[in-house]
Amino acid sequence: SRGGYEGILGFSQGAILAAAVCCELHRRGAPAPRFAVLISGFGRPVPRGVEAYPPQAPLPMPSLHIWGLADDHIPGWASETLAGYFENPRVYTHP
Predict the structure, then answer these.
(1) Full-model pTM
(2) 10 three-class SS
(3) Residue 49 neighbours by CB under 8 Å, 6+ apart
(4) pLDDT tens sequence across 49-94
(5) Among 6, 24, 14, 4, residue whose Cα is nearest residue 62
(6) What is the distance between the alpha carbons of residues 59 and 84, in angstroms, rounded to a whole number?
(7) Count of other CB atoms within 10 angstroms of residue 64
């Protein structure tokens, strides 16, 4: 009765949680956020107990993925994996 969320933001481990929430809402046919902003996220490990993650097909929602090229904790390929779970992801990398 109160409506859905405009967007969802996740950083690091929170980015994988935000993506998993989007996947689960999409699987249930529930209103999903209109967009996702995921910063220094990663696609694996897969959270236990979330049936819809990773998605079988890219999620049909706008997303922005941001990560640092010099990040020595989260490698770029990990953030690219997460971006691949969304249709037409927008990517911004910084030095």
Answers:
(1) 0.89
(2) strand
(3) none
(4) 878 889 999 999 999 999 999 998 998 899 999 999 999 999 999 9
(5) 6
(6) 9
(7) 17
CB 45 within 8 A of CB 15: no
- Asked if residues 73 and 46 have their Cβ atoms less than 8 Å apart, the reply is no
Tens digits of per-residue pLDDT, 17-52? 999 999 999 999 999 899 999 999 988 777 788 788
* One-letter amino acid of 6: E
- Which structure tokens are listed for 25? 């809402």
Q: For residue 8, list its beta bridge partners.
A: 36
Angle at the Cα of 91 from the Cα atoms of 86 and 93, rounded to 5 degrees: 145
* Amino acid letter for position 17: L
